[in-house]
Design goal:
The protein is an all-alpha fold. It has 17 helices and no strands. Helix 6 packs antiparallel against helix 15 (329-355) and helix 15 packs antiparallel against helix 16 (360-378). The longest helix is centred in the middle third of the chain and has 53 residues, at 134-186.
């Protein structure tokens, strides 16, 4: 497959695409609403960051306990059920008078469940599309995520003003419910990819096998750490510029969209591989300007430029799939997604904790500098041929 139109001609891709887009829009709007609600109630950058990125932090629980279900549950039932669960949890977060501790508990519980959703979604994508179509399909889903985040933050900011944070949460719950209906009616009833019952023990067994390969470990590190540290920077947008946080998030999503178009559609595969490390450096370096407390236009330019670097995940995902047997593809992608989101949550907590005694600008600068150092350290281990590495493991 060479064009986006070819991908959309695959019958089940469109409902999967729409389900993902609706969930991203709901997550974006609800995250902004929760961050605003908690910051207004507490004045704490740490609690505000955790309310927005706490689901990411909780992904580690799902990665350790739930991921074996990704290849052992019928995908349609799993995706529609999880979207309905998120609708219920988001609506519960909007209850008047709900303590901040209860909101955070709901956020963390939904985050653990979300680890399974990403694994099922991207495992199903490997079934719907041929292998040569996966990068294009994943790029399209990433692009839709960027578009929905732009719209979600822009519309979410307007909804918070017009309807209040709680009204925005109820709107997000309705979007989750629509995603559940789309998955149920649009996807076919495919069987599970693997036999046996999902269990914690099976999750650990396959995770251990995935982790036992040194080339795969290097890819996982590169997918998780530089990316997560920069999301730590983003988690401080609300305390850094409360009146312009929605705009900062929106231009970041615009940069992600630009990067996915460039890397997923315009670059040939061999160039994607070569640009993976430079893109990860681009992801972090512009945030160093926040050490100078830049005016808003320069801050917006830095965020949009840096966010182009998120597209480094595409060549890394391709490399991961080349290194992974088909029967473990769902869990391998789930481990990638859960680990990445967990690192994002950890980084949000670290950034918030660092900002408490210093300032959001200082914390953002430190997180960006560490991301640059990690990318430079990992670069030598990502230069091998993945096909050769996969053959060596199989032998």
């Amino acid at each position: 497959m060479r064009t986006f139109s070819e991908v959309f001609r695959v019958p089940e891709f469109t409902p999967l695409f729409l389900t993902s887009a609706l969930q991203v829009a709901a997550s974006t709007a609800s995250g902004l609403a929760l961050g605003t609600l908690v910051y207004a109630a507490t004045g704490s950058p740490l609690l505000s960051a955790l309310s927005m990125f706490g689901p990411s932090l909780a992904q580690v629980a799902g990665a350790l306990a739930l991921l074996s279900a990704a290849d052992r549950l019928p995908p349609r039932a799993a995706l529609s059920g999880l979207a309905a669960l998120f609708a219920l949890g988001t609506a519960a977060s909007a209850l008047p008078g709900l303590p901040v501790a209860a909101i955070l508990a709901i956020v963390l519980g939904l985050g653990a469940a979300a680890s399974l959703g990403g694994a099922v979604r991207y495992g199903l994508l490997t079934e719907i599309l041929p292998k040569d179509g996966y990068p294009l399909g994943r790029s399209l889903i990433n692009m839709s995520s960027g578009t929905m985040q732009i719209g979600g933050y822009a519309v979410g900011g307007a909804l918070v003003t017009a309807l209040s944070a709680r009204g925005t949460l109820l709107t997000a719950a309705a979007l989750y419910l629509l995603a559940a209906v789309t998955a149920r009616l649009g996807l076919s009833g495919r069987p599970a990819r693997a036999g046996g019952r999902p269990s914690v023990a099976e999750t650990w067994r396959v995770n251990a096998r995935l982790w036992s390969s040194a080339p795969r470990r290097q890819v996982y590190y590169a997918l998780w750490v530089p990316n997560g540290l920069i999301v730590g920077c983003e988690s401080l947008f609300v305390p850094y510029a409360p009146e312009h946080a929605g705009l900062l998030f929106a231009v970041g999503s615009l940069g992600m969209l630009m990067g996915d178009v460039l890397t997923g559609r315009l670059l040939p595969p061999h160039r994607r591989e070569r640009l993976a490390a430079p893109l990860r450096l681009l992801l972090a370096a512009p945030y160093l300007v926040f050490a100078l407390h830049p005016p808003l236009p320069l801050a917006l330019a830095a965020v949009v430029l840096a966010s182009v670097g998120f597209s480094a995940t595409l060549p890394l995902q391709q490399r991961l799939m080349a290194l992974t047997p088909d029967e473990m593809s769902g869990q391998a992608l789930g481990l990638h997604s859960s680990g990445m989101l967990t690192m994002q949550g950890v980084s949000a907590a670290l950034a918030g904790a660092l900002a408490q005694p210093t300032s959001p600008a200082v914390a953002m600068t430190v997180m960006a500098a560490v991301s640059v150092a990690v990318t430079l350290t990992l670069a030598p281990g990502l230069r091998g041929d993945p096909a050769r590495d996969a053959l060596a493991e199989a032998g």
